[in-house]
Amino acid sequence: MKLYYSPGACSLADHIVLEWIGKPYEAVRVSREERRSPEFLKLNPAGAVPVLQDGDWVLTQNAAILNFLADSFPEAGLGGDGTPKGRAEVNRWLAFVNSDVHPAFKPLFGTTAYLGDEAMIDKTKDVARKSLRGLFERADAQLAGNEWIAGTRSIADPYLFVVTRWAKGQGVDLGGLDHLARFSAQMEADVAVQKVLAEEANR
C-alpha cells in the first residue's frame, strides 16, 4: 500500500495507523504545489491528501481510508472491541473529529480571506476558536473515563491527536483540559507516533 501525505495535514492520522498496523507500506510526501499537478489530480481530483493506493485501487477521504485500514487489518484492534457497539463507538468519535472538529478549523486556515476585511476575518477566527474550545471540552469529558477516545485504542485516536496539534498551533484555548493533555502526551510518547512525526519533519 502507498500513502500520499503532506506534513502536518490530516493524513498524519493515516500515517500513524499504518505504522501501528506494522505491515509494509510506502509513504509518499507531496507538497501543496505537487497536489495541483496533473499526475496527483488523476489520483484525487480534489487535490487533497490523504490518498491511499492499494495496487490499482485508489481510495480518498480520510474517514474512508481509516475504516478501510481498520477492517483490512482486524488483528491490529483499531476498529473497536469486536462488537457492533464497539465499532459504532469508534465511528461515533471518528465522525466527531472528521465532521465536527476538522471543518471548524477552516476560518483559521484562511477560508474567510475572501471577505477582504481584516476585522471581519479576525472575527471569524475568534468565533472558530470559541467553537473549537467547546468541541475539545467534549473530547476532554469523554477522555475523563477513557484512556482512548472510543474506549479502546482505535483509528479515531490519531485523528484526534492531529486536530489537537492544530489547535495548539492556532491559538485555541485548551487550558484546563487535563484529560486531553494526558491523551496528547500519551500519543507523543508512542514510539510509532514519534517515528512518523520524525519522518514527516525530516524528509
From TrEMBL:
Which Gene3D superfamilies is this protein grouped with?
Answer: 1.20.1050.10, Glutaredoxin
The record's PROSITE patterns line, in alphabetical order, gives: GST_CTER, GST_NTER
In which domain of life is the source organism classified? Bacteria
Tell me the ranges covered by the GST C-terminal domain, including all copies. 83-203
Q: What InterPro entries does the entry give?
A: Glutathione-S-Trfase_C-like, Glutathione-S-Trfase_C_sf, Glutathione_S-Trfase, Glutathione_S-Trfase_N, Thioredoxin-like_sf
Where would I find the GST N-terminal domain in this sequence? Answer: 1-77
What name does UniProt use for this protein?
Answer: Glutathione S-transferase family protein
Span of the signal peptide: none
